Amino acid sequence: MNNGGLVNRKEQSNSSKVRSKSDDYALALAKVAVAQLCESVGFHSFQLSALETLSDIIVRYIYSIGKTANFHAYLAGRVEVNLFDVIQGLEELGSGLGFAGSSDVDHCIANSGINRDIVLFVGDADNIPLACDVSQFPVIKEWKEMGSFKEKGEEPPGEHIPNWLPAFS
Questions:
Q1: pLDDT recorded at residue 5
Q2: Residue 94 burial (C-beta neighbours within 10 Å; 0-12, 13-18, 19+)
Q3: Between 20 and 30 A from 21 (CA), which of 2, 71, 101, 111?
Q4: What does the H/E/C string look like for the chain?
Q5: Cα–Cα distance between 102 and 108 in angstroms, integer?
């Protein structure tokens, strides 16, 4: 007996606490963006826990948009996501709130309510650049070129290893 699945839920929550480096990277960027956003609307200070919570919500929301857009691309038989998949995903994620025209199945996505809301927001919002430079992920600190046995002037450890392979020493 597993107590109604309680054991499985505990195991899942423990495994979700382990974050990958990409999650840490996204959270670090989201913290900067959230701090800038809060500052732009008039906040002068806030709790670190609030910053971390808002950053986590933003990262999860962006991840959900990506998953939903990827799902719609796969439904259409494509491997790469396009703008219409993203708009469809935004409509799907915002369906609890509702967007004008989102319940109409025969509507053109280009004229959707979410698309109009984004155009209005972009037209009214001030462009605030991110406060820090964003490096590409993963960050490569130093590139070490591995030469082949031939380039290093060494002999491979065995006759079955060609000298054009990299020397792993």
A1: 46
A2: middle
A3: 71
A4: CCHHHHHHHHHHHHHHCCCCHHHHHHHHHHHHHHHHHHHHCCCCCCCHHHHHHHHHHHHHHHHHHHHHHHHHHHHCCCCCCCHHHHHHHHHHHCCCCCCCCCCCCCCCHHHCHHHHHHHHHHHHCCCCCCCCCCCCCCCCCCCCCCCEHHHHCCCCCCCCCCCCCECCC
A5: 10
Confirm if 93 and 72 have CB atoms less than 8 A apart. no
Distance CA 71, CA 61 (A): 15
Residues 77, 70: Cα–Cα separation, whole Å: 11
Mean pLDDT per 10-residue segment, the chain (169 residues): 46 53 81 89 88 92 92 93 88 65 62 78 79 72 78 86 82
pLDDT the model gives residue 103: 55
